[in-house]
Structures are given as structure tokens and as C-alpha cells.
User: Which sequence fits this backbone?
């Protein structure tokens, strides 16, 4: 399992996960090149560390992080606010040039909450770029256990409460394991497309299999990558 964690560790610049994330961000950057400056970006569920790891430094782009709790920031062009992705009522319609979200929507636990988050992203952003792991990919990305997402709920809780798997390291605590398993709901392609019906979709592939989906809308160019409407 330690080898799988190394492969999937986004903080390790040499890991497979980090390389895929950088390629994904290069796609986003190409889209962003066509947007007039200055730019206001809302990052739903993001961190300052993510943007730092991507070496994203520009004075004409202001980034606002939205999380359940306000975060401390040190970059002059990054600020943080507290809010709920399912109901961002404090933000006006079309108030951001771009809404960005990376591997967040699957953490809402149920499809109704995912629908609410998608609706808010579409309301607030003139453009958006939303990524989520593919439920059909063999390796579950949070627990790093093959086909974990297809096991019955009780079996997933039992495994998580008996073994240190993926990024979850609290065995012998069934209640905590249950909360962790309940919190993750991966989306398949049909569900994800239904959340963003007007979007174009990019499939991020790994060894020929679709590892994750990206929904993007409102951009003047397509980032020079193959996509599907």
C-alpha cells in the first residue's frame, strides 16, 4: 500500500498523480490564456498550496478560495472565504470570471448535494472548469483499493475499519470509517454530464482508461485538447 500512496501522492513532484495534475493544470492554463485580464477566479474547495505547487504566479489574476472554514493565506493574489459549495448565497450571479474546482464534488456524499454544487458553480461563474475522478476507473483514488467503490457499503466500512488503506489511516474505529466511506460518492460519466449539461468534457486517460473527467464551459478556445460536447 505504501507504493500505491507514493504513486498517488500529489505532493511528490515525481509521482504519477502529480504529473497528471500538472498536465491537467496545463490544459486549464491554456484555456485561461484566452481570458481578458484582470481575472477573478473562485476555487471551490481549493488550497493555496495547490496553486503554489502549480507554480501559478501572476499579478493580474485574483484567486478566492472557498472552503467550509476560512484559511490563512500568504500570497497577495490569493484570499480565502468561508462557505458551503452547495449554497454559496453570499456570491452574486456571474460574479467570477472563472469557477475552478479540482477533485471536490465527489466529497459531498450524495447526488443531491452534488447537483446543488454544480448549480452554484454554473450560477456564479462566467466560465468554469470542474474535475472529478471517474467512478469506473479500477483504482478508487481516496482509499487506493481496487474496485473499492463497487463493494457493498457495509463491506467498504469493514475494510476501512480493519486496514490502513489509501489516505485513511484510522482502523479499529468503525464510526469514523463509516463517516469516511459515506463522504465519498464518485460520479460516472452520465451523472457528471447531467450536472453540467452545456459543458464540453475532457477525459483524462491513464493506460488507455479514463481516470477522471473535466467539465468546462464558457471558454473562447478549447485548450487544444480533444474533447466531447
Assistant:
Amino acid at each position: 500500500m505504501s507504493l500505491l500512496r507514493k504513486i498517488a501522492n500529489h505532493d511528490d513532484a515525481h509521482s504519477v498523480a502529480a504529473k497528471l495534475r500538472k498536465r491537467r493544470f496545463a490544459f486549464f492554463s491554456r484555456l485561461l490564456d484566452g481570458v481578458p485580464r484582470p481575472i477573478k477566479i473562485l476555487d471551490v474547495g481549493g488550497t493555496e498550496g495547490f496553486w503554489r505547487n502549480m507554480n501559478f504566479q501572476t499579478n493580474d489574476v485574483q484567486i478566492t478560495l472557498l472552503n467550509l472554514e476560512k484559511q490563512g493565506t500568504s500570497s497577495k493574489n490569493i484570499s480565502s472565504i468561508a462557505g458551503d459549495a452547495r449554497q454559496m448565497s453570499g456570491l452574486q450571479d456571474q460574479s467570477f470570471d472563472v469557477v475552478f474546482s479540482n477533485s471536490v464534488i465527489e466529497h459531498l456524499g450524495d447526488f443531491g448535494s452534488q447537483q446543488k454544487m454544480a448549480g452554484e458553480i454554473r450560477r456564479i461563474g462566467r466560465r468554469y472548469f470542474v474535475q472529478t475522478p471517474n467512478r469506473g476507473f479500477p483504482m478508487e483514488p481516496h482509499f487506493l483499493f481496487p474496485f473499492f467503490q463497487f463493494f457493498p457499503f457495509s463491506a467498504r466500512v469493514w475494510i476501512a475499519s480493519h486496514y490502513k488503506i489509501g489516505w485513511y489511516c484510522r482502523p479499529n474505529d468503525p464510526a469514523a470509517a463509516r463517516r469516511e466511506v459515506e463522504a465519498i460518492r464518485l460520479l460516472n460519466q452520465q451523472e457528471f454530464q447531467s450536472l453540467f449539461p452545456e459543458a464540453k468534457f475532457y477525459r483524462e486517460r491513464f493506460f488507455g482508461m479514463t481516470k477522471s473527467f473535466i467539465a468546462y464551459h464558457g471558454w473562447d478556445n478549447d485548450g487544444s485538447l480533444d474533447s466531447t460536447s
About this structure: The beta strands are 39-44, 61-67, 78-82, 96-102, 125-133, 200-206, 209-217.
